[in-house]
Amino acid sequence: MTAxxxxxxxxxxxxxxxxxxxxxMHSFDTRATSTLINSVYAPEVHLDYDPLLGGxxxxxxSEAWAKKLEHIHDPYDSTQHVVE
Length: 84
Known about the structure:
Elements: H1 7-29, H2 33-40, E1 44-47, H3 50-53, E2 58-61, H4 62-69
């Protein structure tokens, strides 16, 4: 038997997802790598960009992924991600 998914649980899940997305984008914009590692990403990150970029799926640590993205915005003076 499956548990019911009530409105309150749905709204709480939705808010938690929105909060996480906002925290992630703000961390990118402020270059807060430690926040991404400690407050946004799961300990392991499962990546599969095969349909877009080729290659094979991979599993890496949140720290390795955050460090890989750390300098992606270096060409820009500032960035502003908007989550709607």
